[in-house]
Amino acid sequence: MIHKEGYMTILIVVLALIIINVLYYHFFGNYKWPGYILQAGSIFLLVLVLQFFRNPNRNVVENEYVVLSPADGEVVAIEEVEEPEYFKDKRIQVSIFMSVWNVHANRWPISGKVTYFKHHQGKYLLAAHPKSSTENEHTSIVVADKNGVEILFRQIAGFVARRIVAPINEGDTAKQGQQFGFIKFGSRVDMFFPLGTKIRVKNGDKVYGGLNIIADMPR
Q1: Closest of 196, 197, 181, 203 to residue 67, by C-alpha
Q2: Do residues 210 and 170 both lie within one domain?
Q3: Which structural domain, as residue segments, surrounds residue 200?
Q4: What is the CATH number of the domain that holds 142?
Q5: Within 10 A of 81 (CB to CB), how many other CB atoms are there?
Q6: Is residue 89 a part of any domain in this protein?
Q7: Residues labelled as active-site residues
């Protein structure tokens, strides 16, 4: 299954590859080997784009006692930081890096109500850069569960990623495991938990959106 965010990009890539190949064979058709290389490169690029926008079905088991991963990727940071935008205090930050090989649809980590949402314009530093969490283009999303416990997480654009899709409004209902957005071409998601939260992953772990447990739900 292909994510709807990929339809236009895939169409543009297909049309561009057709035009490039037609022009090559019209003007340089006598040069066979470069043509074969062009064909192979065109197929590779198309496969790369198709796999990037893949959107596999997942059987998510809802669990109000845990926080599920909002993204596919690798856990690259677990650290105590100052969260200056919403909580304005110290939090445990868990960062998940999404490479171009990962599924890039994002999923709600908990069920509840969206109490805060803001889109920030910014830079396009490498997503692994420590300052990317606050200086890159990003969205900040806070969801409160039925007990009023809030979790903040951010979609962060990277050096390659240039578009964050998050059709969210404050007051929306979040359902754990369901998709809520998409980040195109490499990115990162940060999550912020109260101090003392039991984190269930470690640096280097591979996680999958809606399937892996990131932390116990704070109480």
Answers
A1: 197
A2: yes
A3: 66-216
A4: 2.70.70.10
A5: 16
A6: yes
A7: 187
Residues 145-184: tens digit of each pLDDT: 999 999 999 998 865 555 688 889 999 999 999 999 888 7
Geometric angle at alpha carbon 49, from 29 and 110, rounded to 5° = 175
Q: What is the pTM of this model?
A: 0.81
Distance from C-alpha of 177 to C-alpha of 193, rounded to nearest angstrom? 18
d(CA 154, CA 33): 47
Residue 76 and residue 15 share a domain: no
Residues 6+ apart with CB under 8 A from 145: 64, 110, 111, 112, 151, 217
Q: Judge whether 113 lies within some domain.
A: yes
Residues paired with residue 191 on neighbouring β-strands, in sequence order: 94, 153
CA atoms of 46 and 34, how far apart (whole Å): 18
Tokens for 1?
Answer: 């299954």
61: left (phi over 0), alpha (psi -120 to 50) or beta: beta
HSE at residue 160, side-chain half, CA atoms within 13 A, is 13
- Residue owning tokens 């999958």: 208
Whether residue 94 sits in one domain with residue 144: yes
Burial class of residue 216 in the structure, from the number of CB atoms within 10 Å of its CB (0-12 exposed, 13-18 middle, 19+ buried): middle
